[in-house]
Amino acid sequence: MIINMRIIELNESTKNNILENLLKRSPNQYREYEDQVAGIISDVKKRGDEALFEYSLRFDKATITKETIRVTEEEIAKAYEQIPPSTLDVIRKSIHNIEAYHQKQKQYSWFDSEPNGVILGQKVTAIDAVGVYVPGGKAAYPSSVLMNVLPAKVAGVRRIAMTTPPGADGNVNPGTLVAAKEAGVTEIYKVGGAQAIAALAYGTDSIKKVDKIVGPGNIYVALAKKAVYGNVSIDSIAGPSEILVIADETANPRFVAADLLSQAEHDELASSILITTSESLAKKVSDEIDGFLEVLNRSEIIRASLDNYGYILVAKNLSEAIDTANEIASEHLEIMTKNAFEVMTKIKNAGAIFIGEYSSEPLGDYFAGPNHVLPTNGTAKFFSPLSVDDFIKKSSIISYSREALFPVYEDIVTFAKAEGLTAHANSISVRFENDEV
Asked: Where along the chain is substrate bound (predicted)?
């Protein structure tokens, strides 16, 4: 079956239509699930573990009890026996790269003092307890474990509790367990879905409450994170995966096609877009996609994804391509042009930027070091990748001596009275009420 990925001339009308179509993929569009999610959360708040066990049986077909909900050291040891040594080796190499990258993001407390007794500063403190959600069931995502856990570990988070749905046999994928152990997870629980988010947010007898929840999941997980926000912090509401490639006539069409398909295989809602200044390249990429679809084992998912959210856009020039890329604000952006680094300087909105034909997106997913938890659905216009910053909080430090406050206290009193807050004004002036006028 030939798909012939659609090739469209880029103009203002087609750009607006594509942007509107992409927004349909946002978790915020699936409001019909909100009542069901709210019911699960309420039930877990009321009945705790009992509700967790019932939902595990209903949704995951797994019989979980108070004695089996937490993964034991014996289960982790067995997981090490089940994975190939080569897999463990690459997990450890990835950990090294991810930790090294995130170490550079660390922030430290600072203090500035002046001779008159003014001390101002900022105290940086790690969040105490973080919950990490990892998808499970039929699929296994050790890379997701590493990307969510390691920034927390680098930040100095004391307690990292992971939840992941078990298989029907009550076991967790061995690759997921090994990645969690290697990354430094302190607790692992066999529970998934909205019920896991509720347990992390409010606590049960078996799972102690956390302060922040991170990690991807299905629509139920996404909406549950949205619902509990405020009681705990969250990283983001992640949408389906996205890739956008900017390419000119110098790009290798086979590489471009392969990279577009790397995201299309995630699910039917994934988005894969090529913006090129070369109509010839556009046709070659479309042909290469057809060839790959004959051999890739998730071709049905890829076809649906490309049919719904796949585009090859032919731009008049590179400037138009860059402007459109900034409007779309893709999760992953690849640049395959003559002067790729120069193009990169003009990109304002993207989750992660991959420069050059040998910097394909899976390099960032698994190995290079930067985080693969990225803003989606255009939120790269105002959100950033998951980082060490997500696992710290900052406290302002203010210390004035009497000598420092005296010259400015009347200014503060004036400001407070201008706002009608006389108690504020009094809090300052009372310190000098015995001074001679």
From this structure: 241, 263, 266, 332, 365, 419, 424
The tokens for 360 are: 């394909």
**Of these residues, 182, 187, 242, 332, which one is catalytic?**
332
178-197 pLDDT per residue, tens? 999 999 999 999 999 999 99
Asked whether residue 387 is assigned to any structural domain, the reply reads: no
How far apart CA 141 and CA 136 sit, in angstroms, is: 7
End of a domain among 194, 213, 234?
Answer: 234
pLDDT digits (tens, 9 = 90+) for 68-98: 999 999 999 999 999 999 999 999 999 999 9
Annotated binding residues for Zn(2+), written as ranges, equal 263, 266, 365, 424
Predicted TM-score (pTM) of the model is: 0.92
Give dist(CA 195, CA 199) in Å, integer.
6
The answer to whether residues 320 and 333 belong to one domain is: yes
239 — phi, psi (to 5°)? Answer: -105, -175
Ramachandran assignment for 219, one of left (phi > 0), alpha (psi -120 to 50 degrees), beta (any other): alpha
Strand order across the beta sheet in which 110-113 lies: 110-113, 119-126, 392-399
Residue list for the binding site for NAD(+) = 133, 195, 218
Residues 112 and 229 reside in one and the same domain: yes
CB atoms within 10 A of CB 79: 21
Apex 390 CA angle, 388 and 392, nearest 5: 75
Residues 99 and 150 sit within 8 Å (Cβ to Cβ): yes
418 lies in which domain range?
Answer: 402-432
395 inside domain: no
Residues 351 and 272 in one domain: yes
Count of domains for the chain = 3
Are residues 140 and 40 part of one domain? yes
Give the integer Cα–Cα distance in Å for 265 and 258: 11
pLDDT-flagged residues of the chain (< 70): 1-4, 28-29, 137-139, 436-437
Q: Is residue 331 flagged as an active site residue?
A: yes
Active site residue 332: yes
Cα–Cα distance for residue pair 345/337, rounded to 1 Å = 13
- Residue 55 CA to its chain's centroid (Å): 26
**Are residues 145 and 11 located together in one domain of the fold?**
no
Pair 276, 229 in one domain: no
Q: Residue 377 falls within a domain, yes or no?
A: no
Determine which one of 187, 320, 331, 357 is catalytic: 331
Tell me the residue type at 363. L
* Residue 375: inside a domain: no
> DSSP class of residue 362?
H
- Asked whether residue 84 falls in the same domain as residue 201, the answer is yes
